[in-house]
Amino acid sequence: MSEPRIKAALWVQMALRLGASDGRPGMVIRRGDADAGGVVVLLRGRMGIVALSQTRDAAGRAAWLRATGPDPVDEARADEYVAKQMRFDPDLWVIEFEAPDYLPPFEAKLL
């Protein structure tokens, strides 16, 4: 049995508040569907950007995939990834955080 799905807008609000309370300011780059949109999280640090995409682990639990690879990429490559995802999911949310260590400010299983 999988975890209950949280509405996208509520999840984004929670993530931004956690970021603010952790000293990792975040912002909405693109608003998606309030109920069912997917989320891409951009983590910005000195060496570039890491994009995280929602996924599920082998047991069906929520997890995050380092969608642009293990190393930071430049802004153009991150923008290309987001544009590609938006073609598949027009309801997509994109949020960005200042993250010098490239870790999200919310609890996340990273794959």
Structural write-up:
This protein has 111 residues and is of the alpha+beta class. It contains two helices and five strands, in the order αββββαβ. The chain has helices at 8-21, 75-88, and strands at 26-30, 39-45, 48-56, 62-66, 93-98. It has a five-stranded mixed β-sheet, sandwiched between helices. The two termini are 21 Å apart. The model has no long low-confidence stretch (mean pLDDT 94).
User: Biggest sheet, in brief?
Assistant: 5 strands, mixed
Average predicted local confidence, pLDDT: 94
Would you identify the regions where 5 or more consecutive residues have pLDDT less than 50? Answer: none
Strand order of the largest sheet: 1-5-2-3-4
Annotation field: number of helices = 2
Shape: globular
Name the helicity range: 25-40%
- Give the DSSP E fraction (strand runs of 2 or more residues): 25-35%
**What is the CA-based Rg, rounded?**
13 Å
Number of strands: 5
- Distance from first to last alpha carbon: 21 Å
List the helices and strands and how they pair.
Blueprint: H1 8-21, E1 26-30, E2 39-45, E3 48-56, E4 62-66, H2 75-88, E5 93-98
Main attributes?
5 strands; alpha+beta; 111 residues; single chain; globular; five-stranded mixed sheet
